[in-house]
Amino acid sequence: MADQPIRILGIETSCDETAAAVLEDGARLRSSVVASQMATHGKYGGVVPELASREHLRAIVPVVRRAVEEAGIAYSQLDAIAVTQGPGLVGALMVGSVYAKSLAFSLGKPLIAINHLEGHIYAILLEERLNGRAEPEFPALSLVVSGGHTLLAITETVGSDSAGTGPVLHHRLLGRTRDDAAGEAFDKVAKLLALGYPGGPVVDKLAKFGNPHAVAFSRPKMKGNPLDFSFSGTKTAVLRYVEHSGMGEEISARRAFRQQHPKAPAAELAEHCSKTTLDLVASFQHAVVDELVQHCIEAANVDSVNSVFVSGGVSANSLLRETFQGLGGTFPPVYFPRLGLSTDNAAMIAAAAYPKFLAGCFADLSAPVDAALALTEAPARGMQEAR
Ligand code: KG4
Ligand code: ZN
Predict the structure, then answer these.
(1) CATH class, 182-332 region
(2) Which of 177-214 are b and which e, b meaning 16 or more Cβ less than 10 Å from the residue's Cβ?
(3) Which pLDDT does position 45 carry in this prediction?
(4) Which regions of the chain are under pLDDT 70?
(5) Is 7-136+340-385 assigned to CATH 3.30.420.40?
(6) For a substitution probing ligand 1, which of 14, 37, 145, 186 has the most ligand atoms within 8 Å of its CB?
(7) Engineering a disulfide at 307: which of 27, 136, 275, 291 sits with its beta carbon 3.0 to 4.6 angstroms away?
């Protein structure tokens, strides 16, 4: 047993990606398969929960099978099955959870329940391990920015496994969004401007053609906790700008173009955008990035941290990365996962499960999914404990 690698199958179905991955000893990625539902939700400009569940049902078996095949192992060589237990869309979570439980039961392997938000944070530790680099120093300031969440937390380690490759993490919430998540704001603005779905990547690319200082957005003032976020004001400011600038005709024409060419590259789409639109897109992105980065600067001034972890789908944003990387000075080192580990994936779920496996922290097959699971809560390990 001592010389045998520990192989964990991770399964992720919390939103609109069906993903499975096999991770060895918490540090070697044998496979990572992600089936995106973008084409299904694209025409609605956002995720439709019922369609997401249906797509997960269709994809879960082939995606897991491919992950195991690409890992070059047999199911019997897996040591545990890890699955996202929350937060996320309840129907989507249930597909992954029920499948993971069935697999764990039939193979006689332990089940490990993972918090999706913690998974995003583990993507950073996985990135460093995949590159053979030393573990980042804790405590860390964690910014998790995705389509469903935007939060800031202090992440600390509580002990380490004997191999020294998988610290168990503990998180203290500093702030979170009071309305839209940052990714949601990107998606809604892209929908309003008929740019396509998901909004983040297309806004990121189109923003390069515009002036980020052309439209001034006022930074939201947070009563109470200054480290809370708000993005709905910025989104509404975009709507008002669109109404006052008479952009309706241009948006209708672009919608027709997008319907005919849903896969048109950004450079071609830019040709269907006026300078006003490109400037608006660049300025909106700049405002969101500024809000995220300023919060991290303020938090790092209050709490003494040795690292900053930026994770979740929005961490793929090129301006966000450039801005953090340009901070320098006394600002702590900033870590990002590679793009494929920023957006939803199952490698991060398997990475988060590794220290739990070593600690023998297994879930009961009756463990319920939890659509509203908070970062600071451990996933329920079974009905007994959930009561
Ligand atoms: O983490 P994720 O894949 O799923 C959730 O857990 O929500 O994040 C998806 C979000 C979407 O809102 C998408 O628009 C955003 O991440 N996103 C980006 C970029 N790539 C993905 N936002 C800004 N810039 C990007 N390059
Ligand atoms: Zn996510």
Answers:
(1) alpha beta
(2) bbbbbbbbbbbbbbbbbbbbbbbbbbbbbbbbbbebee
(3) 81
(4) 1-2, 159-166, 383-387
(5) yes
(6) 186
(7) 136
